[in-house]
Amino acid sequence: MTSCLDPGHGYNTAGKRSPDGSLLEYEFNQAVADIAERMLRQRGKDVVLTKKKGDPDVPLGTRCKIANNEKAKCFISIHANAHLNTWSNAGGFEVYHFPGSNTGRKLAEIAHKHLRQKLKIRDRGIKQANFAVLRETNMPAILIEFAFFTNQEECALLKTDAFREACAEVVVLTEIEYTGDPGKAAAPVSNGNKMPIIGKQYLTAGQLDAYVRSKNPNAPDLVDYYLKLGDEMGIRGDIAFCQSCKETKFFKFGGDVLPEQNNFAGIGTTGGGVRGAYFDTPRQGILAQLQHLWAYATKDPLPAGMEVIDPRFDLVSRGSAPCWEDLSGKWATDPGYGRSIIHDFYAEAKSFPDTSRVPKEDGAEIEEPGPSPQPLPEVKKAEKKQKVLHTAAIIEGQALPAVVIEGKGYVGVSDIENYLDLNALWDKKNSVIMFLRR
User: Fold this and answer.
1) Is residue 417 predicted with pLDDT exceeding 70?
2) pLDDT digits (tens, 9 = 90+) for 205-225
3) What fold characterizes domain 2-179?
4) Residue 145: what are its φ and ψ, rounded to 5°?
5) In what order do the strands lie in the sheet with 123-128?
6) Is 205-350 CATH 3.90.79.10?
7) Quick one: which of 349, 341, 348, 336 has its CA closest to 246?
8) Mind naming one GO cellular-component term on file for this protein (predicted)?
9) Distance from C-alpha of 171 to C-alpha of 176, rounded to nearest angstrom
10) To the nearest whole percent, how much of the chain has pLDDT over 90?
11) What's the pTM?
12) What is the domain partition of the chain in residue ranges?
């Protein structure tokens, strides 16, 4: 069962930008689609995108053809909204379906419910429209306008990772509820405004490694332990690693706990020089940390066959902190402890790009990283500063957003299709786009 996500527009779409030029609509649309795709694939679900990051705009007919060829179960088009070309007070989210489509209406109602739950901005309701991507697709289809990039407050939101992830969660939850297929594993969807401790991991080894080494180039290579043990227990080992970054000052230590204790989360440490627990190996210390988190998160027994390593496992009020934010005042006395793990450490780690690293087998010795091979020097072409003018083109009485670059004018293919009710066809032989009346 495949679903289709449609990130609207492309980097070259004219006019789809904030009034101050700080945000292209394409950037938001693509980011949300990419996050949602990753979440769905983590659940083992099949998903297809109509375009990839860095692609130019794709004709609307081509987008529909991709979804139809894949026989997608549903189609969700991702957009940000605009009102005029200047800052305005128009704001909020809205969701569209094709007029008279009962299945489209059902999909829109599900999306609208999750939009109301996840986004704390104005609700503009469910609407009908004769958009090409709603009309030409063979499956239930909706188009979501998440917020306005011509509203200064909402434009700022559209740039944030937190808002983009919330929008991606709307897409994921909508797809799951409509298809009735939750997949094979829980995606990292937050519980209201909190992040559950139990759940599928989201960050990769490459991201976490790049994050910690940006703060401490000499940090020990422990990421694989966190992710492998986290997978085995069904716990967020990626966030547990971020917790250890907080506890150990990115493994520089300097507090009551010593590096040789292999205690990366301050288990048993109460301050005043109290060292806390000692563990024989880094793996044991990390396993104890994850078990301690398990004790807080759930009343369930540990996974079958797992020996209790955490010396304070039975001292925890079981199930009293199902989310990371709930650890405040429990794991540590700091009232902002849990929130800081998520909003300071995890949030920053998410901003790092993934790099290729192959996890080592459990029990294998993990060596300190050696020097990375130096890449070949990149030969850069001389950059020429282009003269760009954002304007409008009048076509058959319609004013369409346009851009002029070095004296040549460009209008978005999707805009021509939408505004003039045309279908675009790409003529490969002659390298031209032809427009046909519908």
Assistant:
1) no
2) 999 999 999 999 999 999 999
3) Aminopeptidase (3.40.630)
4) -100, 110
5) 46-49, 2-7, 75-81, 141-148, 93-97, 123-128
6) no
7) 341
8) outer membrane-bounded periplasmic space
9) 9
10) 57
11) 0.49
12) 2-179, 205-350, 388-437
